[in-house]
Specification:
The protein is elongated. It has 41 helices and 6 strands. The chain is mainly alpha-helical. The protein has a 6-stranded mixed beta sheet, covered by helices on one side. Keywords: Repeat.
Length: about 750
């Protein structure tokens, strides 16, 4: 049979044997003669004039494995004996095996993790006596170690008649690859002190990758220099990677510059280290030097370079790298393709990101799809991100925990409770709920969608809440105006031995600030530095400025800050002045904010409203004129809610919605009922100005279209005004409906004429 005829057989693929065994692993033939089915293998061997020993051994081993599979499937017995497999098959296979063949097969088992197949070869080795060859024994030892069977590897090592540096290295490498670093170093000591075997350069390369501390790494480095192993590129690369992993970039730079023979691994490790240190420009400079030194970058090097261009938003440089990747034929490589998608996504080139994903086709991995979804969500195209997630599922792409987290993030930004519940069901089905980050994303998403109850269910059903989950739940309580629950969780977190972070304190202090618990907030603020050594940041200082009415104390606090108070600190102070009607202090706070942020329209609007309430109409008009002259535009109020899996948006005085006549009729009816009950709270001027605010229209739409008794959840882009807040309390009582409104500051839960904020926001 000619070679052409051999390669064209339907039962062969590239001349490799593809017989399924345990876990769908495939046996790789030493002499490249492979077949899909046992019958086809027999026919092929009958036609080949010269049958090599490896071909026949493959055939009989395949039949042994095939029989083992049949036995295990029929009786569920994992203990497959020679008798069950057939003594003749074992004899025939062992007759055609030699040392070179066995070593090659064991290497394959090591690389693929084919433990069951490796055990079969072990049995054949014992039967043939090849086991006594030191090279075969070392290969067997390495197979068990690489497959995670260190107990078996130790047993094999104990029976070796000849121990050398290769067998010791196999043991050390096995310990390291199985996460047993302390055992690896203990064996390294035993190797020299007890076994009296001199370590070679490969021993030190393995140990450098297992260093748990800088001190140990430096000691190994010193020994390497003493033994003159640094001249070997593989050792130098290991030391370089070790320093980079510890973030010791200065030492890594010195070591890299001292390497005599730099290869693509050296350059890639160095560039990766610079990328981790966010030295993006320097990393790209080294990438250019790498090419000038005639060292060709591989797919991993290009991936890191593209990530640098993306992080630094060097769009033009990223496009140039994309062109080089195309020129070098690396587009089909999944790492490079994904890096290109991330680069275009971070540079807001979403069209090119989608195009790259489409060009990758079936090569695109879960990470590739995640990169596109992340780019869409972070660039404000939340709906498109969710649609891309649906396409990902329809294309049977295996999702991971990050897919869950970014999709839930999209749900929280929309926000859509219905979509969140759908994604949650998918998370449960995929068994991703046990992941701590996914669970914390669920908590945050339910809270942002206005469903605190489901957020609590996710939190309390978690077997072992971690710091991230505690933070998410404490933040939720803070936004919903429930400081006591937030403080309770904070204390429980500390009791469980979980150290609070800067974010934890921000959430719990904010909860106190929202409800006027000045003393509790102050105690937590002081504890942050005193007990946990966490330095306050600008957000922590701003949270200390509650609306409790202690404006003089708040101003004194601001004046004593160790940092320059900027707009984020003066804004809550201005809000407090607005709430308590302190016009003079409000003017001072407004001037401070405009010094740092002259385009803040909310400052002009706040002052204008305060002037109107104080009867200073001319000053109010002056503020409006200042806004116009400085081209400062107020963000139009917009509210939205979800009905029947569709988002409906409303603006103040909106008449574009198809149900406009019904909405205004319903709103007018409600306002008449409110006026009949009380006219003291709603002033005439305020009532006329706020009558058709967007949140009122959204609530009326919910009343008309949601089933009776359903909670109405409305989301607004700016803070709810005082008049609308009072109105919502009345509507909740008149209609006997729970209304939840999330503005850009917090949640307001209206029920039976009361609000969760206690009229303090």
């Amino acid at each position: 049979m000619s070679s052409l005829t051999f390669c064209s057989l339907s039962s062969t693929v590239n001349g490799n044997l593809l017989k399924p065994v345990h876990r769908r692993k495939c046996i790789y033939s030493y002499n490249k003669v492979s077949v899909l089915k046992l019958v086809a293998a027999r026919q092929l061997l009958d036609e080949i004039a010269k049958r090599t020993r490896g071909s026949v051994a493959d055939l009989y081993v395949t039949e042994c494995v095939d029989r083992a599979d049949m036995v295990m499937e029929s009786n569920g017995n994992s203990d497959v004996t020679d008798e069950l497999l057939g003594e003749s098959m074992f004899d025939c296979a062992s007759n055609y095996m030699d040392e070179e063949y066995v070593i090659d097969q064991l290497r394959y088992c090591s690389s693929e993790g084919s433990f069951e197949l490796g055990k079969l070869y072990h049995a054949l080795m014992i039967k043939t006596g090849i086991w006594f060859d030191k090279f075969v024994a070392t290969a067997l030892l390495n197979m068990y170690a690489k497959c995670g069977e260190m107990a078996s590897a130790e047993m094999i090592f104990g029976t070796l008649s000849y121990i050398d540096v290769a067998s010791c290295n196999s043991m050390i490498c096995g310990y390291v690859s199985n996460g047993m670093e302390s055992e690896a170093f203990a064996y390294f000591v035993k190797m020299g002190d007890i076994l009296d075997i001199v370590s070679n350069h490969y021993t030190y390369s393995i140990l450098l990758s297992a260093c748990g501390s800088v001190q140990v790494g430096k000691q190994l480095h010193a020994q390497i220099v003493k033994l003159d192993f640094m001249s070997l590129t593989v050792v130098g690369n290991s030391a370089l990677t070790m320093y980079i992993n510890f973030g010791m970039i200065e030492e890594a730079v010195n070591l890299f510059e001292g390497l005599a023979n730099k290869n693509h691994i050296s350059w890639t490790a160095y560039i990766s280290g610079l990328y981790r240190q966010k030295a993006f420009y320097k990393a790209l400079t080294q990438f250019c030097l790498m090419r000038k030194n005639n060292t060709e970058p591989n797919e991993y090097t290009y991936s890191v370079a593209l990530s640098c261009a993306a992080s630094a938003e060097y769009h033009d440089y990223g496009c140039a790298l994309h062109a080089q990747v195309i020129k070098n034929g690396m587009i089909p490589k999944v790492f490079v393709g994904t890096a290109i998608i991330e680069m275009y996504s971070k540079c807001a080139e979403l069209g090119n990101a989608r195009k790259q994903l489409k060009e990758m086709g079936r090569v695109a991995s879960c990470a590739s799809w995640n990169a596109v979804i992340t780019g869409l969500v972070h660039n404000g195209e939340v709906g498109s991100g969710l649609e891309m997630f649906r396409k990902m599922l329809n294309n049977d792409i295996a999702c991971d925990e990050y897919t869950c987290s970014i999709t839930l993030k999209a749900c929280s930004l929309l926000p859509s409770l219905e979509v969140c519940r759908q994604v949650h069901s998918w998370v449960v089905k995929g068994m991703f709920g046990v992941n701590l980050h996914v669970a914390s994303s669920l908590i945050e998403t339910y809270a942002q969608c206005g469903n605190l109850e489901d957020a609590e269910k996710v939190f309390y059903r978690t077997s072992e809440p971690d710091g991230v989950k505690f933070n998410a739940m404490i933040k939720a309580y803070s936004q919903y105006g429930n400081p006591m629950n937030a403080i309770f969780l904070f204390e429980k977190m500390v009791e469980n031995g979980i150290l609070p972070t800067s974010f934890t304190f921000l959430a719990v202090i904010s909860a106190c600030s929202h409800c006027g618990l000045v003393q509790q907030g102050k105690e937590l603020f002081e504890s942050m530095t005193r007990d946990y050594g966490i330095s306050p940041e600008e957000n922590h200082y701003s949270c200390m400025l509650s609306r409790s009415g202690q404006l003089e104390n708040a101003l004194e606090f601001i004046n004593k800050l160790p940092i320059e108070p900027k707009a984020p600190i003066w804004r809550p102070f201005l809000a407090g002045c607005r709430f308590h009607g302190s016009l003079e202090m409000a003017e001072m706070a407004a001037s401070k904010i405009l010094e740092h942020d002259p385009g803040d329209a909310s400052v002009y609007v706040t002052l204008s409203n305060m002037y109107v309430e104080a009867g200073k109409v001319r000053d109010a008009l002056k503020q409006r004129e200042l806004m116009k002259s400085k081209s400062v535009q107020k963000e139009p109020g917009c509210s939205w809610l979800e009905v029947n899996a569709k988002i409906h948006r409303f603006f103040s005085g909106d008449t574009r919605h198809i149900d406009t006549p019904k909405l205004y009729s319903r709103l007018d009816n409600l306002m008449q009922k409110i006026q009949n009950k009380t006219s003291r709270e709603l002033g005439k001027v305020t009532k006329e100005k706020c009558l058709f605010h967007s949140e009122r229209l959204a609530v009326c739409f919910g009343l008309l279209n949601l089933p009776k008794g359903t909670t109405i959840r409305v989301f607004k882009n700016i803070r709810i005004c005082l008049d609308c807040h009072i109105t919502m309390k009345h509507i909740s009582k008149i209609t006997n409906r729970e209304i939840i409104i999330r503005d850009n500051y917090r949640f307001h839960h209206f029920k039976q004429g009361c609000c969760s904020c206690g009229d303090f926001w």
